Amino acid sequence: MRYVNHIDTARVARELGRPVNTEDVLSADYASLPRAVSAETAWWYSEVTSAVAEGPGQLTVRSGVVELLGRHVVLLDLDRYVSSREDIDEEMLVRLSDDVFAVFLCAAGPALQEWMRSK
Fold first, then answer.
1. Which of left, alpha, beta for 55 (phi over 0: left; psi -120 to 50: alpha)?
2. Is 16 exposed, middle or buried (0-12, 13-18, 19+ CB in 10 A)?
3. Residue 80 burial by CB count (10 A; 0-12/13-18/19+): exposed, middle or buried?
4. Angle between helices 9-16 and 110-117 (to 10 degrees)
5. For residue 4, what are the contacts with CB-CB under 8 A and spacing of at least 6?
6. pLDDT above 60: residue 24
7. Would you say 62 and 46 are in contact if contact means Cβ atoms under 8 Å apart?
8. For the segment 55-71, what is each residue's pLDDT rounded down to a tens digit?
9. Helices (H), 1-119
10. Are 63 and 77 in contact, with CB atoms under 8 Å apart?
11. Rounded Cα–Cα distance for residues 63 and 75 (Å)
12. End-to-end CA distance of the chain, in Å?
C-alpha cells in the first residue's frame, strides 16, 4: 500500500488566502529541523523504516522539503507492506490502508487539514 504526496505549500497558501510554512503543512513530529536551520529555505529529506507494532510487515515513512519542477514542495511518502504473498488478503489490504491513513493523520499539519476540508 503506497501513499505519495508532493504538497505545494504555495498553492495551499494561495487557496487558504494566507501564508503557510512547512510546519503548517507537515506536523512538527515530521518537520523537525535544527534551530539554526531556516525551514523556509532548507531542503531536507528523512526516511525511516520499521516493523509495525501489530501485524506482519514494515512501514517506511519518507518526508521532507524537496525540489519539484523548481519549487519547494513538502514530500510525504508512506509505504506499508508485507513481504509474503500468502499474507495478502482483503483483510490485510484494509489493515495496510488503515496504517497508512493513521500515519497520514499524524503527519498532516493544521493548514493542510484545513485546506483538505475546503476541497
1. left
2. middle
3. buried
4. 60
5. 75, 76, 77, 78
6. yes
7. yes
8. 788 999 988 888 888 77
9. 9-16, 22-25, 90-107, 110-117
10. yes
11. 5
12. 24
Q: Find cell 513538502 and name the residue.
A: 74
d(C-alpha 83, C-alpha 73), whole Å: 31
Which conformational region is residue 57 in: left (phi greater than 0), alpha (psi within -120 to 50 degrees), or beta? left
Per the CB < 8 A criterion, the answer to whether 18 and 25 are in contact is no
Query: What would the grid cell of residue 77 be?
Result: 511518502
What distance in Å separates the CA atoms of residue 91 and residue 16, rounded to the nearest whole number? 38
Give the cell for residue 118: 475546503
In whole numbers, what is the pLDDT of the chain averaged over residues? 83
CB contact at 8 A, 84 and 56: yes
Give the whole-angstrom CA distance, residue 65 versus residue 69: 13
Q: Which residues contact 11 (CB under 8 A, 6 or more apart)?
A: none
Joined grid coordinates for residue 119: 476541497
* Cα(12)–Cα(21) distance, integer angstroms: 10
